[in-house]
Amino acid sequence: DIQMTQSPSSLSASIGDRVTITCQASQDISNYLNWYQQKAGKAPKLLIYDASNLETGVPSRFGGSGSGTHFTFTISSLQAEDTATYYCQHYDSVALFTFGPGTKVDFK
Amino acid sequence: EVQLVQSGAEMKKPGESLKISCKGSGYDFNTHWIAWVRQMPGKGLECLGIIYPRDSDTTYSPPFQGRVSFSADKSISTAYLHLSSLGASDTAMYFCARRGLCRGGSCLDFWGQGTLVIVSS
After folding, report:
1. Which of A23, A52, B47, B111 satisfies CB 3.0 to 4.6 Å to A88 for a cystine?
2. Which of B108, B95, B92, B97 is nearest to B43 (CA)?
3. How far apart are the first and last CA of chain B?
4. pLDDT digits over A5-51, tens only?
5. Chain A, chain B: beta-carbon pairs less than 8 Å apart
C-alpha cells in the first residue's frame, strides 16, 4: 500500500504569511496528488488537482507543486478564512482514495 | 450547479442497521463514480469505497470490505451507504463525493454535506 505523510501536523501563522505544507508518498505516484481544505464542521473542498492545477473558483493564493514522492502545498498570503485542516490525497485502483493525516492551520 | 445532498443525522443503538442516501443533481449522475468517505470524531478522512451508479459496479477499500455495502438507484440519482451490526466505532461523519474529471479520475470534486451517525446505547 502507498502511504501518505504530511508535515507539519499543525502550524500557526499570521495574516499575510506564506504557508507551506509538504506531503510525501511512500512510492512514486507521478502527479496523482490532490489537496483539499476542510473547515470545521464542513465537507472537504478540492483546491488543487493533479499536483499543481487550481480547481475552478479557488483563489490564486493557493498553489501546489511536486511529482514523484514529494509534493508541496502553498498559501502565498494567509487570509483569515484559510483557517482549516488541509489534506493531501492519492488515488490507486486498490486502496482507492488515500488521504494524508492532515495539517491544521490556525492563527498565531 | 452540481450538488450532492445527503440524508440527515442518525442516532442508532448497537446492533442496528442504517442506510444513508446521497442524491445528486446538476450533472449526469449515471456517469460519475460516487465515493463514500468516513471521518471519525477528531480524525482524518478514510475512503470506504466507490460505486458507479449506471451499473452499480462497486469497489470496496480493503479495510472496509465486508463491513459496508453500497447501492444506487439511477432512476432517482441516489446512492446509498449501508451499515449493519452497528457498533460504537461506527460513530462518525459519513460523506459522499463525486469522482472528478482530473487525471485518471483521481480526485473528488464535489462533496455532500455529510451525515452524522451516532451509535450509542
Report:
1. A23
2. B92
3. 40
4. 999 999 999 999 999 999 999 999 999 999 999 999 999 999 999 99
5. 78
